[in-house]
Structure prediction request, 654 residues.
Amino acid sequence: MAATITLNRQSAFSSAAGVAEATTEPALVRGILIAIAALFLGLFLFLPLAVVFAAAFAKGVSAYFVSFREPDALAAIRLTLLAAGIAVPLNLVFGVCAAWSIAKFEFAGKSLLITLIDLPFSVSPVVSGLIYVLLFGLQGLLGPWLAAHDIKIIFAVPGIVLATIFVTFPFVARELIPLIQAQGSEEEEAALTLGASGWQTFLRVTLPNVKWGLLYGVILCNARAMGEFGAVSVVSGHIRGLTNTMPLHIEILYNEYQFVSAFAVASLLALLALVTLVAKSAVEWKAKQQHAALARNWEEVTV
Amino acid sequence: MSIEALNITKTFGRFTALSNVSLEIPTGELVALLGPSGSGKTTLLRIIAGLEFADTGTVRFDGKDISDRSAGERRVGFVFQHYALFRHMTVFENIAFGLKVRPRQQRPPAERIRAKVHELLKLIQLEKLAQRLPSQLSGGQRQRVALARALAVEPSVLLLDEPFGALDAKVRQELRRWLRQLHDEIHVTSVFVTHDQEEALELANRVVVMNEGRIEQVGTPDEVYNHPATPFVYNFLGNVNLFHGRVDNGKAYIDQKNTGHVVYVRPHLLEIDRQPNGGGPDRFRARIKHINSAGPLVKVEAITEWGDPVHIEISQERFRTLELRRDEAVFVIPKDVRVFHANEGSPAKPM
Prediction:
């Protein structure tokens, strides 16, 4: 038995090597391609990132931290956390519902729903913001009614939250739809025949099967929710300490030549991006690990 | 528990999966729904299970109308072709699932659930693999776990959708025998879907042959094989030779002229002889084209005097006595034939 395994491994290895040989370019071409990729990454990603942190710490560590003690900065951070804190859970629920109904049922208007989910991706964020102004602004469609009832949406926190929800709409749904579709509905049917309710089936069968995809969607959704500028800028009104999110606050500081403060807050957003990337890689790695572990065990069993 | 499906019709868009099908299954039977793909057999099974709902018609368990009940309320055990095991749960958790999801008042205590699962693991002979994940099991093992999971809820009927379809031939044989034994032990009314006639004939008490959304024949394996009611059943169950024929004085003869009758003869019901015996109408000439003597029966392929191919199966003993060779001219004698009108399904003059 052991002999067969080694033989299999060897043949697998040699065939892999064979493939590599057939598709490998000459060393010079390889070198040039790698150099171009590295140069591009360095110029457009690492350099700006370094500049952000360099500028933030230009006047020393204490100046860096002073930037965060400012009430307006704190308010901006709070508002960003609030907007993301509302938008992400809402889009999580919406994404799961939409993905479930698209993957599992046939209904009229299904393709329209798929197109609509993608809308925030295809529309410029500025336009998304304008839509809300046209709807809820004073001169807008619902403006007079809202004014009569003393409800403020545009140039207030609700507008910012709404705009954030809109632009982060597709992330979770987009991630889940192909996943749920690929898994089919046999496991759910099995759960139903065993007497599980619809809710039990969802919690115990469907959700565990898509949890990594779901987490991945949430991470992307959160990153966008915190970083959104265009749509939020249109509906915010830039009222300091009230309707400024972190990206808006950074812009104001920069325009006022407060470079250290601007870059300090920017570094926080950059840090968020880095954390997101690490979390995303960790999730991917974890999913792959699980896969590999299963494959390994499978090998043991079959041998 | 007895099952009745009465006047079931089901369409998917423009496709009619079942048209006015009625079937009664007495308590404790092991019934096969046999037919080619697209014959409606799986749809009928899923309607009985409550995974699909008929456009018209009623489903009754023990005489009680349960047409509107959900799959969970019907308490059926359903086994899927591709197992449908919960991939993130261990074997133990899979089998325990049906008991754990019960409402609190009906749920057995954890101790009882564990005992029940171990009892089932013993039944499927997988006690050592309780903590494995489904992906760590072989196909045959997975299908047994799926069966144990279905049995854990003590179902009133057991429904199996092509249960051995995804397994290789040897495992399939073993599982078939094992399922037969299991049914003898627990006597739960069971229905399984298959397109494999051998599986249906070997395993079931009764076979329901289906074609194009209708039931062609219901009977014991012996009845459907030896007394097929329609040309379709004759064709579908086992190999068969088709000839033009005629009927004289209540006796059927194979003829090269088309007289509106089709004669069906199974290969093992054809005899080979060297003697013309007066060259009567009960035999015809043929030339041997190919001989396959590997197996319990010798398979002979020949060409009739009018140029049609004919398949004949004779015993090894007879083959040795005759000393047949390729390209040899012989006489072929049908021992038992069945005649149907060429253009309709009903038997003409059964022999």
Summary: Chain A is about 85% helix and 0% strand. Chain A touches chain B at residues 186-187, 189-197, 200, 204-205, 208-209, 294, 297-298, 300-302 (CB under 8 Å).
